[in-house]
Design goal:
Strand order of the largest sheet of chain C: 2-1-3-4-8-7-9
CATH topology of chain A: Pyruvate-ferredoxin Oxidoreductase, domain 3
Oligomer: heterotrimer
Number of domains of chain A: 1
Number of domains of chain C: 1
Distance between the termini of chain C: 47 Å
Order of helices and strands of chain C: HEHEHEHHEEEHHEHEHHE
Shape of chain A: globular
Shape of chain C: globular
Number of helices of chain C: 10
Strand order of the largest sheet of chain A: 2-3-1-4-5-6
CATH superfamily of chain A: Pyruvate-ferredoxin oxidoreductase, PFOR, domain III
Largest sheet of chain A: 6 strands, mixed
CATH class of chain C: Alpha Beta
Helix content of chain C: 25-40%
Structural class of chain C: alpha/beta
Number of helices of chain A: 6
Order of helices and strands of chain A: EHEEEHEEHHHH
CATH architecture of chain A: 3-Layer(aba) Sandwich
Structural class of chain A: alpha/beta
Chain lengths: ~180, ~350, ~260
């Protein structure tokens, strides 16, 4: 088993952190993992993306030709990465900002209004966790509890214990919303 | 076993501290900023000196001074900054001062860009600075290996009194992987430095020099250096080899390209192509013999690099006429995906 | 007969000998060159402060490249211009060391300007001895940043033209503007009273380091008879009449 996941969006949407938490959860769950960010000028106000690889064997290339899953926080991200997805894979689409459906039919679209849901929780900066929650409903490599634990540890290390509870709620909300889509599809 | 998810840049910094690096001097440059920042945060609280110098030229000369004073010392930079350090590196080589230089390579020449590249191979392994000198050059391909090789770089540099370079690229510097950090070196295990400048108390003065105006004298100094280099070539070649026993095609790649090549080899095998891989870990001394041996039984030795073909020259030297030696590289910071490379591999198998 | 074997007749006392910090190697300086005076003064001050066993000197590129031979001290040779960076490394690695660099005008004020300015600005706790003889000595009498307007050198054969090559660089005045340095002074080596003052300045500079007070630089104005193509006495006369008006003597900065 080796799965590549791409997180993409605007700089400031918490894309890199969402990827890191998934990678950390994978590591703590006993998998080989890698996390590769896009870096440089495009970080500063432009688009950002990172690639996480989860595998049961040591990881060679940390870049992937055909990601198994995508988190697209904005429209340009979906435009760029939809064609690359592996058949049978899925895209979590931030339907608050992305107003189109998938063009491909051989992948699953998980439409979740993550920006709106995070606002409703009064946690506008936790839209990345809503999206991550939705993603892990699709990914079976890492259980939800491992992600919650990685999230808590990450926040503790950053001295942001006060944010753990809200982010955990955001994650769970995303997980539930994705369930509605996936069960309905 | 306690694993930590760390960036390459941070793992290198932490490993240096654990290797007993007491003085670190730098000038900021992307894509190795996290290394500088980690050192600024950690080193002063762990008994070391951190100093942001006015230039890369100054930083390497501070390393020269600290090494002369007898402590483990390091600097880090990226390609353009490493060019500026070349004068100091040549002086260190001439003066037989140990020290570690980290190059997190980016696209060049000139200002280039900050994307991952491997175009500084010639500079690291064939000189770069002036004079007949060599750098022990270690090329990690994963974050845990980077931490391991930093420890190794300090050891080798001390043992032979030859400066050592970690040659990685922006991808390795920026990416995160689980690392089990090595145990810190016991200061008592760091080799004594009877040559260091500690004040001439109860002994004759020590002198650290890289010159001898008498040609016979300088010839002797150079011969001594060459003898050390031969020892290093004899003792310290490191490489990783996989699936070479039954290979019909051999891939040779290092660092980031080395790990991508591992995936390429796997994909090739899945499609029935018997691909093997040699990944040089020391770029100097270069693993000529292992490549020569593995080349006996294959028809093609394909070199992969993020450059226009630099290590390729060493692979050709190793292989000679034993097999075809084509090259595939990407330029300017573009990183090929495994399937792009696989397409290239198939060209040589079908023909 | 070496000094140790000299027997001093009764009623006489020994008043002059080679400082312990100096070796018995003959210097390689030209006849009449004032480097020799500076080299000796530093040794006297190191002896006087009793710091010989913990001092590390930094030899430059240039006429004083063999400086390590003239002293009984640990020494490192730095690349051209980088002495202040090397000194920073030594001192940061081992703050117990007493570190001094010895640099000419090309080394300190041209190729090594950045290293000098930034070490001074950080207030690094070491001592810089700066020999300003307005010319490149070892390479063959080329223009230095300190060369005077109109002065002929091998690269200004018609005299230094300020419109093309700029003006004499007064680096001590520049450094004195900074908050970092402790002590910046300019002295001269052309006669005995000035040599005595230079010695006193060096003593202050090394004492500052011993007391952890930070960056001190002693600029010593000197002459280069060989490249000036003058006899030593004429070179010294030229120094007084031409160089000193451009490089006024005295303390430029004394931070309390």
């Amino acid at each position: 088993m080796e799965q590549g996941v791409v997180f993409a969006g605007f700089g400031g949407q918490g894309i890199l952190l969402a990827g890191k938490i998934l990678a950390r959860a994978g590591m703590e769950h006993g998998l080989h993992v890698s996390w590769l960010p896009s870096y440089g000028p495009e970080m500063r106000g432009g688009t950002a993306n990172c690639t996480v690889v989860l595998s049961d064997k040591p990881i060679g290339a940390p870049i992937v030709d055909t990601p198994w899953a995508l988190v697209a926080m904005n429209a340009p991200s979906l435009d760029r990465f939809e064609p690359q997805l592996a058949p049978g894979g899925a895209a979590v689409i931030n339907s608050s900002l992305v107003k189109r459906d998938l063009e491909r039919t051989d992948i699953t679209g998980i439409q979740v209004p993550v920006t709106t849901l995070a606002h409703n929780l009064d946690m506008p900066r936790a839209s990345n966790m809503v999206a991550l929650g939705a993603l892990i409903r699709f990914l079976d490599a890492v259980p939800q509890e491992a992600v919650v634990q990685a999230l808590s540890r990450e926040m503790e290390e950053r001295g942001r214990e006060s944010l753990i509870e809200g982010n955990r709620k955001a994650l769970e909300l995303g997980y539930e919303e994705a369930g509605k889509v996936l069960d309905g599809s | 076993m306690s694993l930590q998810l760390m960036r390459g840049n941070e793992a290198i910094a932490e490993a240096a501290i654990r290797a007993g690096c007491r003085c670190y001097f730098c000038y900021p440059i992307t894509p190795q900023g996290e290394l500088v920042e980690y050192m600024a945060r950690e080193l002063p609280t762990r008994g070391g000196e951190f100093l942001q110098a006015e230039s890369e030229v100054s930083a390497i000369n501070m390393v020269y001074g600290a090494a002369a004073a007898g402590v483990r010392t390091m600097t880090s930079s990226s390609s353009p900054g490493i060019s500026l350090k070349m004068e100091g590196i040549s002086y260190m080589a001439g003066a037989r001062l140990p020290g570690v230089i980290v190059n997190i390579m980016r696209g060049g020449p000139g200002l280039g860009n900050i994307a991952p590249a491997q175009a500084d191979y010639f500079q690291a392994t064939k000189g770069g600075g002036h004079g007949d000198y060599r750098l022990i050059t270690l090329a990690p391909s994963t974050v845990p290996e980077a931490a391991e090789l930093v420890m190794e770089a300090f050891e080798l540099s001390d043992r032979y009194r030859v400066p050592a370079m970690i040659l990685a690229d922006g991808m390795l510097g920026q990416m995160m992987e689980p690392v089990e950090l090595p145990e810190p070196v016991d200061p008592a295990d760091i080799p004594a430095r009877p040559w260091a400048l500690t004040g001439a108390k109860g002994r004759d003065p020590n002198v650290v020099l890289s010159f001898d105006l008498d040609p016979q004298g300088l010839k002797k100094m150079n011969q001594e250096l060459q003898a050390i280099y031969r020892q290093i070539q004899h003792n310290e070649i490191r490489w990783e080899e996989s699936h070479t026993e039954d290979a019909e095609l051999l891939l040779v790649a290092y660092g980031t390209m080395g790990r991508i090549a591992r995936t390429v080899a796997r994909l090739a095998r899945e499609e029935g192509i018997r691909a093997g891989l040699i990944r040089p870990i020391t770029l100097w001394p270069f693993p000529y013999d292992p490549i020569r041996q593995a080349a006996q039984s294959v028809s093609t030795v394909l070199t992969l690099e993020l450059s226009a073909g630099q290590m390729w020259e060493d692979v050709q030297l190793a292989v000679g006429q034993r097999a075809d030696t084509p090259f595939y590289g990407e330029l300017g910071g573009v990183v090929p995906t495994p399937r792009q490379i696989l397409k290239e591999v198939k060209r040589y198998v079908s023909s | 007969m070496s000094p140790a074997e000299t027997t001093i007749p009764q009623g006489y006392g020994k008043v002059f000998s080679r400082p312990q910090s100096l070796s018995d190697a003959p210097t390689t300086y030209c006849p009449g060159c004032l480097h020799g005076v500076a080299t000796r003064l530093i040794a006297e001050v190191i002896d006087e402060l009793g710091i010989k066993d913990r001092t590390v000197g930094i030899a430059p590129v240039g006429c004083a490249v063999f400086l390590y031979r003239f002293y009984n001290l640990d020494f490192v040779q730095a690349s051209h211009g980088r002495a202040c960076a090397v000194a920073t490394g030594l001192k940061r690695a081992n703050s117990d060391l007493m570190v001094f660099s010895y640099q000419g005008d090309g080394d300190l004020a041209a190729i090594g300007t950045a290293e000098t300015v930034h070490a001074a600005n950080r207030g690094e706790n070491f001592t810089v001895v700066f020999i300003n003889n307005q010319i490149y000595g070892m390479t063959g009498g080329e223009m230095a940043p300190t060369t005077l307007p109109g002065q002929r050198t091998t690269t200004t054969p018609r005299g230094r033209d300020v419109a093309s090559t700029g003006y004499p660089l007064r680096i001590s005045e520049m450094l004195a503007q900074l908050d970092g340095p402790r002590y910046i002074t300019r002295q001269s080596l052309h006669d005995a009273p000035h040599i005595a003052k230079s010695r006193k300045a060096l003593l202050t500079a090394f004492s500052n380091q011993l007391e952890g007070k930070g960056f001190s630089m002693v600029e010593l104005v000197a002459a280069c008879p060989t490249n000036f193509k003058m006899s030593p006495d004429k070179a010294n006369k030229w120094l007084v009449e031409q160089a000193l008006p451009a490089y006024p003597l005295g303390d430029l900065k004394v931070k309390e």
